[in-house]
UniProtKB/TrEMBL annotation:
Keyword terms: Signal
Origin superkingdom: Bacteria
Name listed for the protein in its UniProt record: Lipopolysaccharide export system protein LptA
UniProt key word Signal: yes
Domain Organic solvent tolerance-like N-terminal: 30-146
Keyword Hydrolase included in the entry's annotation: no
Lineage: Bacteria, Pseudomonadati, Pseudomonadota, Betaproteobacteria, Burkholderiales
Length: 184
């Protein structure tokens, strides 16, 4: 009997990709309070934290930013009791689309362009006011520029859940469906 320790779901989207121009943008930080440690290249932001890089926007209650010796950033953003940490990024597609995510903790590593959402992890794709795809799990790993996901959930009753929208512009109506035969 398999004790549901791990459920892995990999979703690959090839219809659009993240804005490539985000990679060349500077990272901007806003918060109520910022503590800098230039010796360790560590920055702690608290209160109404906003991290922005191009179309990428991450919000939370607290963030820790560490810059490694090669200049790459590692960013950890946590939510608080009233709101989860969240991120949004515009996708490079023929229509204006966004990927949105939420979780108790969001980790971003610039070197690999990987975003990890843990604790009540959720992502969705939207176009205008309409959502397209949704994913829930204990942890979601998301590559910002290849749009590859990996969702992991632990436990027998806590599965990773995904809902993919149909590729129709509009769902077919029941009365529009014609039978394959003609009655006489």
């Amino acid at each position: 009997m398999l004790i549901g320790f791990l459920l892995v779901l990999t979703c690959i989207s090839n219809s659009s990709q993240a804005l490539q121009s985000d990679q060349s943008k500077a990272t901007q930080f806003n918060a109520d309070k910022v503590d800098f440690n230039d010796v360790n290249q560590e920055y702690v932001l608290t209160g109404h934290v906003i991290v922005q890089r191009g179309s990428i926007l991450v919000k939370g209650a607290k963030a820790v930013v560490v810059v490694d010796p090669d200049g790459f950033q590692k960013i950890s953003v946590i939510g608080d009791t009233s709101q989860l940490a969240e991120f949004t990024q515009q996708l490079d597609s023929t229509t204006i689309e966004f990927i949105h995510g939420e979780g108790e903790l969001i980790l971003y590593e610039e070197r690999t362009d990987v975003l990890i959402i843990t604790g009540q992890a959720f992502t969705s794709r939207s176009s205008g006011k309409h959502w397209r795809d949704k994913l829930n799990a204990d942890q979601i790993q998301y590559n910002l520029f290849t749009e590859k996901y990996q969702a992991v959930s632990k436990g027998e009753q806590n599965f990773a859940k995904s809902l993919l929208s149909p590729k129709y512009k509009e769902s077919p109506k029941l009365f529009d469906v014609k039978p394959n035969y003609v009655s006489q």
